[in-house]
Every structure is written in structure tokens, then in C-alpha cells.
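Our collaborator T.R. sent over the components below with a one-line note: 'Predict the complex.' Nothing else. No constraints on interfaces, no templates requested, no preferences about which chain binds where. So this is a plain run: every listed entity goes in together, and whatever single assembly comes back becomes the starting point for the next discussion.
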Amino acid sequence: MDCNQQVSAIVQQAKACCVVMRQLGSATKSGVLLEVARQIRSRGDFIQQENRKDLEFGRSKGLSPALLERLELTPKRIEEMATGVEEIVALPDPVGEVTRMWRRPNGMQVGRMRVPLGVIAIIYESRPNVTIDAASLCFKSGNVSVLRGGSEAAHSNEALISVFRRACVAKGVPAEVVSSLGTTERDAVQALLKMDAYVDVVIPRGGKSLIRNVMENSTIPVIKHYEGICHLFVDRAADLEMALRLTVNAKVQRPGTCNALETLLVHREVAAEFLPKVCDALTQAGVQMLGCEETRSICPQVKSATEEDWSTEYLDLILSIRVVRDFDEAVAHIEKYGSHHTDTIVTRDWETAHRFVQQVDSSSVMVNVSTRFSDGFQYGLGAEIGISTDKLHARGPMGLEELTTQKFIVFGNGQERT
Amino acid sequence: MDCNQQVSAIVQQAKACCVVMRQLGSATKSGVLLEVARQIRSRGDFIQQENRKDLEFGRSKGLSPALLERLELTPKRIEEMATGVEEIVALPDPVGEVTRMWRRPNGMQVGRMRVPLGVIAIIYESRPNVTIDAASLCFKSGNVSVLRGGSEAAHSNEALISVFRRACVAKGVPAEVVSSLGTTERDAVQALLKMDAYVDVVIPRGGKSLIRNVMENSTIPVIKHYEGICHLFVDRAADLEMALRLTVNAKVQRPGTCNALETLLVHREVAAEFLPKVCDALTQAGVQMLGCEETRSICPQVKSATEEDWSTEYLDLILSIRVVRDFDEAVAHIEKYGSHHTDTIVTRDWETAHRFVQQVDSSSVMVNVSTRFSDGFQYGLGAEIGISTDKLHARGPMGLEELTTQKFIVFGNGQERT
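Returned assembly:
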């Protein structure tokens, strides 16, 4: 069987499971997920044993200690995965919710009901715990998942998927509701992206080349999880003490995430007062700063930023800083260089805050809070499959609801159209 | 300038207008649309003159009288276009609506606000009135549109777009908020489909080859408007008189639409009683029938259906008929051969109706009404850009709300993430 036939067989089996999944009640789904959590715990040794194969291979390939650390499944992390599944069990099941229903003049009732999307393919380059998160969220929302993780976590991912599938079978649900696409064949992804007859949506989470490849080759609808070039704008009417706290928090609290701050914009009227303070605080926090000429004339320790810096996602303790003439220049900078992910303003002026919310077109637009809050858990959505940087269907943090679609339901008593 | 550069220039100008469009208030947008309606009326002669060029070209190419009739812009149709724009003015503006807002434990408020999608490209093969409908709906929802109509209506479409743009300019809004991609260059569509940096969504409305081309070549998110292979299932507990009325209505009232009935499924227990009556009524209405062997054993006048017939959208006075063993076979038939557009059941049994609504995965699932109601106006959505056959973002009739996306808005007073 060639690669194309293998992938085709996997997605056809996945599609065939949709009819079963659509009819599973919440209680059954919860029973399966609790069994998944139980088996993650009871089969922790097996999971660690497979994980060690990835760690050894990673070491032999010369992976950095930081990456090896990310990859490792310690007993604590295995327990966290099990707890994560139990938290998903506790969330409300979105399937079957009638979000609205209204009556038409002819007596016919029209409503919208949440239903699963169908088969969801997820292509990701992340820690192995994403495998269990993604499979559990898809399952809870009545979807069948086809997972393709990074090659560096191949054994760990396969082990986790096998644990998930065993739990399904133990509860009488077909194993094929969760599948692995494998990781060795590079052609498998290319083949998958053409299977629009069987796969309803593909979610790529990762770097530019992964995302670009999916966009260019997929005939399946795509929801991208892409980079965050997030801005914080210190308005002339900002509480400068608050601006300093939020800048440091947004940059330093966890710099490797997509909602961490990458560019600080400072209104010219407060630059001379604010910049020395914030540069001191950032220096103390170990942040390297790259700035425009005006920033450097105030803080000579800041290195010079290139044009490219304004559109770079550092994911590290690096921050670019720019002084702007006024509000409009700040908004124009965000429009030109940003990635429309998360942008925040610090201001005490009501009118300025209002204009920022209206004019900035990003998935999260904030006033007087840290960009780091742009996250499904922080927003109270309960859990997230990721943060969509697309505009269609899901924008920003994607929870269980975004893993469903809505069909129209129409109830009548013999209405004909005239 | 080659074709690629031309298209690139058009979509870049369109993108640049998004900032302006985002900030237009409802009153300004209504003013522009009322001016569009006024100019459609006052420039009716010009519109008709350009339309005659298409009609002459169509005649010379040997277009059928039915197609020429569809293409013609009579004074009555021009007046209907103007009235249609005025009806869109009267609809509520979706932009800026905060659909939900909640408070988090740290005091931060999180909400979702409707905002325009951005630049919408629409590729269609339809009557020229779609040009004005589509441009008006996109404009009302704060979007910039790039339109590509069929070549047979090229002059009419260009004339209508020029009228729309003159009305914009007369009200101080840039003409580029509505653009034509032209129709002569076939390569223009191929170039457009790669302009993901400037176009936010592409909506293809038309036949299989158009849709397939867009799916296979677009790097831009796509919302398809594709075929409707709609079913009516006559359950054993059906009110047979109602089933007969709804079958005839769904097939005959306007057979050329995507929500017209294509396949009638009849429960075996009522087939002997129902089929002769419905076949008589359909014959009287001029419908040609193609059936399974069991149907033909009851109604010998019905011709034999091929396997292909079950997945054919006739868009004509032709109906395929199949006797099914039971409810499950009916649902399995719809799953296998349907296009997940609109499917209805006729039954008096509550449990059966309930199961149909749960198990059939179509954009509209109905009980005891005609499939012909699957339509934005009939559902009370006010207007529709079309009927999406996709699951992501918009499923079924797409109104103004589906031409928007929702961004998160977050208001705080200095919250940091810990």
C-alpha cells in the first residue's frame, strides 16, 4: 500500500465513525474520557518508556536541553495530562445546544443547533501533552480526530494515542475515533491535505513553513494557529506605573508564548518620562531591547531595531520599542506590522480607549490589561484547542464551541412555499 | 501590466479601504446605499443599454431563450434591484454588536464584538442582480468586495458596479470599496486565489467545476455555495395527504433552485398507498420520475433510476424516487448520496421526528415542511448572500451576520497574569 492509500484508509475509517460519534450522549462521552484519564495513570510506565525512546533519539540528534526538557514526560506531567482530561469532562457538552429558535409568520419554527464538525485533522509541532488535549477536546465535542504530531515526539504521541484508543474500546466505542497519521512519511501530510471528501477541517499549529505548506496545498478548510506579534501602546494619558507593570508582565511572564509582547509603542509626549523607567525594569528582568532612533536618543543602552524587527515574533526575552507621534501612528503601526493576534492600550482617557477598541482589527483588543490574558482558560472558555489567527469560524482562543458548527432545524405542520 | 499585477493592484486597493470601512457609521453606510438605489433608478437607461450588449452577444453565441430571459434587465427588474438595496438599508447593522460580555474572577471583562471580515471576493455565475445584492450586503456589513461575475453578463455587471461606485464617491466614500475583477481574463481568477495577503475570504457560487477550481487553487479561506441534493422522507407514520402536498411543492414550486427536492424516499409500509397518488400528482405537474425497482413495480410509468441518479442535482422537473425498508435505510441513503444541504421528513411520530433531527447532518434538517423554505428570507434573516454548503463559519443561508467575524474585547484596570 502506498502512502496515499494508507492515508486514505485512515481518513475513510475516521469519516465512517462520524455517524457513531454524532449519536453518543454526553454520559457515554464522559465515561470514555474518564477511562482515558484512568489509563493514562495506570499505563504511566508504558508512556514513559516510549517517551524515553524520543528523548534518546533527540539527544543523538543534538536537540537543545530546552527542547529535550519540553519533550520529557515526567510522572508529574503524566498526572497533569490525566487531570486535564478530567477537567474537560467537567465542561458543558456543546453538542445539541439550540442557540436560538424563533417562529415565522407562517407558524414554522426555525432554530440553530450545535453539531460536531465531523473529522478534524490537527497538525502540530508541540509537546506530547497536546496529543491528549486535542484528542479529548475533539472527542468531547463529538468529533473524530486525525493527529499528526512532530517527529521528535513520535513514540510518545503513538503511545498516548494507543492509550486513548484502548480506553475507547474498553467503553464500546470504536478505536478509529482517534487516529494517528504517523510521523515518518513526509508525504502523508501532503496526501491528507487533499482528502476533502473525508476531512472537514484541518488545524495547523506551528511555524511559518508548516502553516504555509498547509495553506498552499489544502483543499480542506483550514483554521490556522499562527504567530502573535503583540503590541502594547502606552498612550500619553497612560497611568505610567501601570504601563510599566503590564509591559514587564506581557514580555517576561512567559516569553515563549504567542500572546507575549513583542513590540512596545510609546506616545512621544510621555517617552522621555516612561522609557528610562521601563528600560531599567526590562534590563533587570533580562530583556534585550531593540529600538527606533528616538528611543535610543533617550535610552542609549537600547540597540538599533531594523525594519524586520517590527514584524518579528521573538518568542524570547527580546523586545522592540518604538516612539510614535500620536494615536493614529500607533494604530497604523499595528495595522502594518502586527499579526492581528492580541494588542493592548494603556490609557486613562475614555475616548482614546474607545477608539482603540473600534479601530484595531485583532483577534483580541485590550484596554489596561496584559496581552498574556489572551487564552481560553483566562477568558473563561474552559479549555482551548489553540488560538486561531484566522477570521473565519473561530478567531482568537478556540474552545469546545468552536469545534462545533450549527445546523438549521425547522419544525412545521405542513407549510408549503408560495 | 500582466494579469497578476492587475489583480494585485485591485486587491491591494481593496485592502487599503478596510480601515475606512471599519470606521463608517451605520448612518453613513445607509446614506451610500440609498444613493445606490437612487442612481440605479436614475441611470436605468444606461444599465439597459449595457445589458443589451450582453443580450446581443448571448444571442450570437446561441444562448437558450431561458438563459437570455434570466440575463435580461427589464425596467421591472431594475426597480426590484433598487428596492432590494432599500430593504438591505432597513436591516440592522451587525457591526459593533457585542454578542456577549462577562466578568472574570480578577475583575477583567471579556466580550465578543462583531466586526467586518475585511475583503470578500465573490465569484458567481448568476443573474446580474446578484452583483448589486452582493455588493450591498458586503457594504452594509462593513466589508470591501471584489466581484467576478459570469462572462455572459460582463457588460451588465460592469455597468452596475460603476453605478455603485459613483454613488460611493458622491457620498465621499472611496470607489474602491467595490471592485470588479473583470471577466475577460481567465487567469484573473487563478491570480486572485493566491492573494491571501489581501483577501480575507472567497465565496464561489456556481457549478462543480467552478467550485472545484476554487477549492484546489485557493490559499484564501473559502465558503462554498454548492449543490443541493435535497431529500423528502415519507415515514410510515406520515400524514400522506401532507406528504403529497409537500413533495409537489418542494419539487415543482421552483425546480431550478438548490433547495428544490431531488429525491423522494418512501417507507415501504406506505409505498403501495402513497406512490400511485404522488406519481399521479407529479405527472400532472409535468414531472419526469426515475425510480428504484420497487417503485416501478408499484408505478410502472416510472422510468428506471441509475446509481448516478441518487447523487444528481437535476434543477429541473425530474425526481428520483426510492422505497426504503425503514427509517435507518432512509437516513443511510441521505448520508451516502445527499449533499448535506436540506432534508425533510414527513411524519406524525414524535420519536421518529426527533431521531431524524438528531441523526441527519445537513445544513437544514426539517420536519413536516417543504425543503423550499431553506432560504435566508424565509428563515427571517432578512437577506442572504447565498446558501453555504460548508460547515465552517457559515452553514446554510448566510445573512449579514455571517459576513462578519467576532473579535474578543478585554477591559481591565491593570490586571497582570500570574
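Summary for T.R.: The mean pLDDT of chain A is 95.
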